[in-house]
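Anyone up for a design puzzle?
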């Protein structure tokens, strides 16, 4: 039995774990890599997935970092079934089409840039099309929570309630191979207890191998009351200053939870009644309708009998579907609250709102979710003084708020509590879906509290499950490390030195040029110097 890690290995995006066992090959999730260019280039490495040899995919939930590559994998030869819960299927139908729309728009923009520069069309620069996204949905099949099914002989699968977003699951897989049955449990993204909208995750049952997410393995979340106070503080700050509150939000679950939080503030008299609220994300608006469809699955006892949850809390939410409506928000004066996607600020309408507002001191930008390495959101929350948005270098003069208490992920304490239920069974724990620093701290705590060792695989590592786990000891496993290509820093430094010497030599006679030509060259050299300065400051 072998597991290869094609994503969410020392990172939090691109979740995909390929299992080879009992004569079959299947994937748990097939998500999009998000971050800087080097990370996002992994999305095009379809051959690593060997799509035509995958028998099926088990999808934990709809978020694009878990589902976003399925259209490309299907277009490249995957013919099997994608299993997921019914709410996940409703969400993923929306999200994959939205993702494809973004892919097509960005591809069109890149092609225009290439044509303007006289460059040739680049092959395979479109990750997938809207047609491919729609076509792959025919391969999805809904399953029920807590009802075991057998996608292929000798592999039994059970979806359990994970409480990350509506429909999210952790997956228990019993694999019989050579007369021996092993249990693998994949946490997916585990939700926090006492989530505002959802019931708590189901307890973890006995397992031989636990593939555990570790997004917040190195910190805990603040409680809901403190998070609401912070949100209220951000809103009232910009209200008094006449500015806007910009909330980058994930379209599924986070947007709906923030709307619910605004309702709670409204009910407590802490939300200015004349401050308009805009949900500026067509995907979030459509996803809100899915929440209405499954409202009986939500944990909202205090309002369930009085108001339809999410869609109408009795106070005004303005829904901006069209592009012109969205653009108009940036021309409006006065305080307002804008919820817009994407949650990590890498794509979508949020980039336009940040472009128009991040340089304004009266603006409050409220981050309510995890920001992956390399994303625009991560740069902002880590204190960047300037950011580049849509080819514009902008000062970060807005007040930045980071409220992790709204996270849909379990915090460190909750992860440990979840693991504690099976610690006496001595499972082998593999930490995934987290940055290395977070994983190392969580691994140390698991060792201290439960005397269990953990493994932290990297991208493309392979794990061989070589022995049967027992209640007395952890399983024996072999991790084959994949070596990432070494970057040739010396060549770049040598070439940079050479180019600077060339430039200095060329500028020796610049005084002989016309003054107008000198000013143009001077501006270009000044920009080059400023770019190098910013890079040094970033390092």
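Challenge accepted. My sequence:
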């Amino acid at each position: 039995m072998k597991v290869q890690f094609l994503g969410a290995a020392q990172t939090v995006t691109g979740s995909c774990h390929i299992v080879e066992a009992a004569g079959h090959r299947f994937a748990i999730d097939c998500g999009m890599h998000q971050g800087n260019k080097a990370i996002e280039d992994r999305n095009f490495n379809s051959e690593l997935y060997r799509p035509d040899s995958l028998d099926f995919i088990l999808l934990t939930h709809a978020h694009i970092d878990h589902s976003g590559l399925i259209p490309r994998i299907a277009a490249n030869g995957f013919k099997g079934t994608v299993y997921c819960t019914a709410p996940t299927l409703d969400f993923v139908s929306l999200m994959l089409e939205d993702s494809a729309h973004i892919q097509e728009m960005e591809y069109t923009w890149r092609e225009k840039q290439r044509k303007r520069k006289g460059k040739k069309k680049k092959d395979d620069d479109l990750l997938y099309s809207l047609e491919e996204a729609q076509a792959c949905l025919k391969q999805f099949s809904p399953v029920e929570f807590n009802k075991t099914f057998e996608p292929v002989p000798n592999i039994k699968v059970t979806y359990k309630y994970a409480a990350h977003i509506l429909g999210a699951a952790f997956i228990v897989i019993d694999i019989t191979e050579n007369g021996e049955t092993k249990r693998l449990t994949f946490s997916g993204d585990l939700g926090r207890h006492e989530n505002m909208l959802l019931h708590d995750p189901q307890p973890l049952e006995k397992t031989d191998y636990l593939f555990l997410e570790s997004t917040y393995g190195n910190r805990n979340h603040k409680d809901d009351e403190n998070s609401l106070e912070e949100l209220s503080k951000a809103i009232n700050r910009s209200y008094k200053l006449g500015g806007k509150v910009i909330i980058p939000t994930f379209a599924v679950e986070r947007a709906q939870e923030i709307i619910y939080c605004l309702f709670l503030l409204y009910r407590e008299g802490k939300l200015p009644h004349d401050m308009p609220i805009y949900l500026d994300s067509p995907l979030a608006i459509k996803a809100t309708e899915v929440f209405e469809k499954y409202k009986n699955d939500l944990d909202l006892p205090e309002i369930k009998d009085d108001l339809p949850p999410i869609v109408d809390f009795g106070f005004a939410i303005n829904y901006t579907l069209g592009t012109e409506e969205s653009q108009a928000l940036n021309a409006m004066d006065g305080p307002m609250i804008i919820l817009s996607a994407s949650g990590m600020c890498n794509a979508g309408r949020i980039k336009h709102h940040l472009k128009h507002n991040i340089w304004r001191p009266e603006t409050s930008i409220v981050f309510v979710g995890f920001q992956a390495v390399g994303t625009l959101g991560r740069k902002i929350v880590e204190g960047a003084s300037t950011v580049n948005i849509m080819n514009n270098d902008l000062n970060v003069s807005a007040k930045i708020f980071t409220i992790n208490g709204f996270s849909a992920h379990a915090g460190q304490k909750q992860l440990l509590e979840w693991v504690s239920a099976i610690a006496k069974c001595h499972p082998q724990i593999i930490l995934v879906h987290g940055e290395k620093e977070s994983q190392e701290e969580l691994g140390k705590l698991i060792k201290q509290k439960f005397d269990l060792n953990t493994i932290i695989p990297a991208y493309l590592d392979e794990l061989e499950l070589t022995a049967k786990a027992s209640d007395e000891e952890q399983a024996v496993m072999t991790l084959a490390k994949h070596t990432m290509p070494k970057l040739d820093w010396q060549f770049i430094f040598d070439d940079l030195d050479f180019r600077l010497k060339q430039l200095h030599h060329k500028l020796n006679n610049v005084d002989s040029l016309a003054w107008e030509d000198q000013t143009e060259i001077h501006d270009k050299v000044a920009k080059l110097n400023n770019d190098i300065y910013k890079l040094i400051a970033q390092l």
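A detail worth pointing out: The radius of gyration is 25 Å.
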